[in-house]
User: What shape does this take?
Amino acid sequence: MVEIGVSVAAKVSGYLVDPVVRPLGYLFNYRTNIEDLSEKVEMLRDARDRQQHSVDEAKRNGHVIFDDVPNWLTRADGFIQDASKILEDQKAAPKSCFNGLCPNLLSRHRLSREATKKAAVAAQIHGVGLQIERVSYRPPLQDIRSAPSEALPSRLEALNQVMEALKDSNINRIGVWGLGGVGKSTLVKQVAEQAAQEKLFDKVLTASVLQTPDFKKIQGELADMLGMKFDEESEKGRATRLHQRMKDEKTILVILDDLWAELDLDKVGIPSPADHHKGCKLLLTSRNRDVLSNQMGTQKDFPVEHLQEDEAWILFENKAGDSIKNNPDLESIAMDIAKECAGLPLAIATLAKALKNKSESIWKDALVQLKRPTSTNITGVGEKVFSSLKLSYDYLEGYEVKSFFLLCGLYPHNYISTRDLLKYGVGLRLFQGTNSLEEAKNRMDALVDNLKASNLLLETGYNIVGLRMHDVVRNTARKIASKEYYHALTFQKGVKVEEWPKMDELHKFIMIKVND
Assistant: This one.
């Protein structure tokens, strides 16, 4: 009974004493509570600034910010603003009452009480901020969306056929074949965009294979679009990691562009659709149908043919812009020029852009040049195609941009490093009138824009800094380079040189280029 009485008395005492002691505590600890709040606000402000710097850096690097981070920043900002007002009120509050005879107890009690509560909230918000270890994540790369292309019936039909094959559960390897420059890459890029829009697959990946496959580069392109990075240095180790990552996706479409021979999927790290990953489908392009059906085992192959005359004219007229509309006399000449491009979209688009806004006499001269027989001896480049691309080169204005184009053409692979272009351009003294590296860089950027506007240089196709040149354009550039400004002497690595140029011819060459 005694123990129960003591317990009851203690509780009663607590109820009676605490309401009296607590207010006195606010008064006695007034200065301590205000200083504690001030310190916690400063700590929270510092933490908020650190997180904001991390967010700003992540945005500059193209990362996506986690949703809880801006929410925390907004909450911290709001609290800091409210708490700062209390601290300002404390400075402005009357310090005494009764003509300075005693401290202003009511004001001190209120401010001390608010400071105590705010300090606890500040500690809680700060603690939440400390739990945020990462503010962002690196999103998978997405293909750069192309501008809507001309609705050419033959291309729309091919697009629909490929899309239907992708939706067929019995087909997991599809091929697209045709001549270089006929539009295979453009078609599969449109397929990738439409497949992503219709959500046919969880992931759509694309990579360029090229004549001499660079397995690490192919692995890197696929990994970038999956948002993954390799810790492995070896090609085999990267292949294993990529294989594991791709199998994590329930459905996935892998587009491999420009195959010249059989590609070992295991060496890249791509799971075989039939054996290892039922949800994986392959879309392959090549110039040779046998590469697709015989070597890669495609189940359905779709040809991309030359454009018929009416479609070639639609494409040419579109690329030439208002030049033809504003001068009706050009129409018949332009139609004849379009016919001379042999129905190849690459040649049509490139020449139309080259002639855009040119005088009628230049259009007439272009037609004459195209009709003249030309011997190119370039594998994969017909006479008419070479003539149209050569004219596009001829109509580039100035030695500088022409020389820069030929320099780009000497690169052995599809990817052209702008850093290397700048280095070689400065070394060859291409950028005349520039007095600093910055000026040379600006001049190079202007030349790149000029060639891109002429369809002679292209973007890489996804978010990677660099350029590319269609191999038909590149082969044409090399042919020109061996005869004109550069007089570049080129050799193929591993191919025996049957005959070295004579001494009286060697002085014409200013460069020796060995291609891989």
Observations:
- The chain has 21 helices and 14 strands.
- The chain has a mean pLDDT of 80.
